[in-house]
Amino acid sequence: MANLDIPYFQNSNGNERIEIGAKKFMCIGSLPPFDHPHVFLEMGQKLQTICPYCSTKYVFNSNLGENECNPISAVFNKEIA
Hints:
Blueprint: E1 8-9, E2 17-20, E3 24-29, E4 35-42, E5 48-50, E6 57-60, E7 69-70
Parallel strand pairs: 1-3, 2-6
Antiparallel strand pairs: 2-7, 3-4, 5-6
């Protein structure tokens, strides 16, 4: 069963990097309908990872909540989509 609490992030603005408060998350690329396959990413012990589809660099920031990011425009609300 899928975990519906996994945060989703997107990079429609073409940010060089996105700081996030989660180490397990989904990247969708750009906003639909221009999204790429929704890919689950996990940083493990690392402090950053790069999406293999869109090359967005995600950097862990422990000062952010699990569903928060900087810039805040990178949060994707899957309930609205």
